[in-house]
Amino acid sequence: MKFYCIGLASLFSILLFQCSNSNADYKAKDSVIKDSTNLSKKINGVSFVSPSTEVGKAEIEKPKHIIAANALSFMPYAFVEENSTKLLYNSKWQWWGEKTGGIEQMIELAQAEDYQIMLKPHVWKSHGAYTGKHSYSTEEEWVAFEKNYENYILHYAKLAEDKKLTHFCIGTEWEQFVQQRPDFWLDLIKKVRKIYSGKLSYASNWDEYLKVPFWSKLDLIGVDAYFPLLEAKTASTSELKTALEPYKVALQKLSDSLGKKILFTEYGYRSRDNTTHKPWKADREGRVNIKAQENAYEAFYATFWQESYIAGGFLWKWFPNHENIGGVNNNGFTPQNKPVEKLIFNYYQ
Prior knowledge:
The chain is of the alpha/beta class. The chain has helices at residues 8-20, 22-25, 57-67, 100-112, 139-162, 175-180, 182-195, 237-258, 290-304, 340-348; strands at 43-48, 71-74, 77-80, 88-89, 116-119, 122-125, 167-172, 199-205, 220-224, 261-267, 310-318. Mean pLDDT is 90; it is low at 2-40.
């Protein structure tokens, strides 16, 4: 998620202009959207938060029973300090659900429940800094970091193949890394393809996806859909549908130009005032507003979920220990134990 916003009028103009030139910027080798039997239905997914301690079947099956989810995204985390090229992952000090062993156990439990599964590596920068701005000033630093990042991704690509996962994501919100080092990403995709035979994507930020140069090499166009919409404390569903329309147009044009579906690798809204103004904000501030969250989800699904070019998505986010999470006094992203659960169920089922 990105921690700044630009004016809506300017943003909409940029979106429409860039999409009108998408055929020049992106040339797909395949004009047919790839699909398979087990991917034929909408991906009604949740981003399953990496737990600190072991979880069992009861927690893994809850998204299916409570909101009719049919897919889970698991996130093996890595960590990098500012100005460092070292990437730490699968370390003893990490939470159980961030490491390979915990991921493997959750995958096995999820497969027993017939979920589709996306493995989606995340890198956490020190102090929660935005990964999209991560960059280096020398070639030596870039090469060192790229080698570490490649090892990290190939490690989990092999796990995804071994477990026969339906989806694998090669990265999350790396705007500067993608723009400055496109050849690295093209080479990485080739190496992942040699290991993993499922569907590949990349999770681009909401203001990055039109600039990604390698969509034609992937199977799905991944978008973290935190589109800035309206400043109102409680924007109405109809107002939000109107505000979402330019994004809908842009996404469909990109999908049509590449012959590939859009996968919302993340999407979601907090239950607080002004939730649609800067939907990516993950601080703890804001007055609880249950209705604002409901309206935002209703508008999002009404805009996108019946569209054939939308593969589906993974809402942000779902925690284990469900009974003690969320609730009507919680202003966070999770829909758990909030009225919006029923709305999500109605769309997901």
